[in-house]
Design brief:
Elements: H1 4-16, H2 26-50, H3 61-75, E1 79-82, H4 85-90, H5 93-100, E2 105-106, H6 115-122, E3 130-134, H7 137-140, H8 149-156, H9 159-171, H10 184-189, E4 209-211, E5 217-219, H11 221-225, H12 227-238, H13 249-275, E6 279-284, H14 291-298, H15 305-312, E7 315-318, H16 338-364
Helix pairs in contact: 3-8, 5-16, 6-13, 13-15
Length: about 375
């Protein structure tokens, strides 16, 4: 048992090194930290603005969920756009609204097959309008879902997720750096550091568009004005291509089985929608470059698009069948430049309007 003398000596020794903080030191430190943060954020903002970035809403899962809920909130009679990035970027809501008098609900998701969304809408009695589905072979006929978690966000969004989305949307229109492509760790990841031999490095897709509050997507100007930036995008698309001669018979057989499965899913969903009076329309958007190899090789029209249209009985608009849908500029081979997307949207709407009218006349005769 320690003596009282040793205890007092220990206490005295501890008090000798006890240095309390001055009472007024926290405020200056906090102020200095705030100033440093503002300076650094301002510098980051100025840098990305100098790189051509402008403020834009973030194409988040929460933003998609907001638009998906519009179908449930007495807007299900409207035109709904579904598809992957071509349907997303090439369909301009402002133009569609100008020529039709109606602003569609944009539910396309880049890098994601629309078949799951078709199935979801087929089970939703609130969906009673028109569904226009973009068909990109490498997404639609494979069932690939890069943004598939958006469906989970819509179905099970928590109150904290909802609040976070609302708060984020307050600042998104004012900050050019507030994009996924410009986060610090994303920037670090794409630096040209030496790669270990034998390790495959997959480049992430760069920023390609700006987004409005209701998810209208318009090509990022840098893709159009900076040829080097557009080439980076082309390189990213090319990394997903694998020559068919390098695939085994088992791989090809599995791919064909999955291809047919996706068509079966789309047909079943389409029939459910049609039975409820929903007009389903499929659209094939322009492509070039590496996709001139990918599309005809893996998704020949005769065994993919033609089968889909024949089995669903739905209206199909293929860009190769209409002169009005050709001759547009695709800076990175897959998506239309902003001004061309305006003209494409107007031409597409007119073709759909005309062909629906012709079909109705034919049915009445």
């Amino acid at each position: 048992m320690p003596s009282s003398t040793s205890s007092s000596e220990s206490t005295a020794a501890m008090s000798k090194y006890d240095r309390g903080l001055p009472g007024d030191s926290i405020k200056p430190a906090a102020l200095l930290g705030l100033v440093i943060m503002i300076v650094m954020l301002s510098g980051w903002e100025m840098y990305w603005r100098s790189e051509g970035s402008i403020p834009s809403y973030r194409n988040s899962e929460g933003l998609w969920a907001i638009q998906r809920r519009r179908v449930d909130e007495i807007e299900g009679e409207k035109t709904v756009l579904a598809g992957s990035s071509r349907m997303f970027f090439n369909s301009q809501l402002d133009v569609w609204e100008r020529v039709s008098g109606e602003r569609p609900i944009q539910l396309s998701l880049e890098g994601t097959s629309p078949v799951s969304l078709m199935e979801d809408l087929a089970e939703d009695p609130d969906m009673t309008g028109t569904l226009i589905v973009g068909v990109a072979g490498e997404m639609f006929f494979t069932g690939f879902e890069f943004r598939g978690s958006a469906f989970e966000r819509y179905a099970n969004e928590t109150p904290s997720q909802w609040l976070g989305q609302q708060i984020s949307m307050l600042v998104e229109p004012y900050l050019a750096f507030y994009q996924y492509d410009y986060s610090l760790f994303t920037v670090i990841k794409r630096q040209a550091f030496p790669r270990r031999e034998g390790v495959f490095f997959l480049m992430d897709v760069r920023r390609l568009a700006n987004y409005s509050k209701d998810r209208n997507a318009r090509m990022f100007s840098k893709v159009e004005t900076d040829p080097e930036y557009a080439e980076i995008a082309k390189e990213i698309w090319a990394q997903f291509y694998r020559p068919i001669e390098t695939m085994s018979e088992d791989e090809l057989a599995a791919g064909l089985e999955n291809h047919n499965k996706q068509i079966d899913r789309a047909v079943a969903a389409t029939r459910k929608l049609q039975a409820r009076g929903v007009e389903v329309i499929f659209v094939r958007h322009p492509f070039e470059g590496i996709y001139d190899k990918i599309e005809p090789t893996y998704f020949p029209r005769a065994s993919s698009w033609d089968v889909l249209i024949e089995r669903t009985g739905a209206l199909g608009v293929h860009w190769q069948d209409h002169e009005e849908l050709q001759g547009f500029w695709l800076p990175e081979s897959s998506h239309l430049a902003a001004a061309d997307a305006d003209r494409f949207t107007e031409a597409l709407y007119e073709i759909i309007r005309r062909e629906l009218a012709d079909r109705n006349v034919g049915e009445q005769q």
